[in-house]
Amino acid sequence: MNEIEEILAPANWEFTSPKEKLFSSDHVIDAYLKGQKSGLEQAQRLILEKLVSNINKSGKNTTAILDFIRKKKFNPISAYLKINSFDDFAILIVLPQSEFIDKKIFSIYDFISELENKENEDLYHIQVSICDTEEGIDENYVRSDGFNLKHKMNK
What we know:
By secondary structure, the chain is α+β, with helices and mostly antiparallel strands.
């Protein structure tokens, strides 16, 4: 008896179910791959849904920040969103340099800090930064830093 026959007909073991109900290793592998593909597709759909939801939430948070900034008599130039992952986002707010160095900006930082603490959760994290500019901002530089979405500014 060769080794393969020995493996297929072990002396001390017998099948617990009839042979006709057994699956070949090819059947098991095919079933595994189909299940894995189905599971991956479902996970990708869930991640995509969460990404869209989080982008919308980031938009609402950016609008709230911009509204607060305007209420404090500042004039934001633009706001950008960087997507680090489906649950991690960075928001960049651009102000004129003259306003950026004003001491009233500390109340804006307090508001942003409170908003970040309130909004951050397991599947959503934002980090807001403020920068200044003397002139217009070069969007090529902003884009090269990964801020690929620009907020639609309400006047």
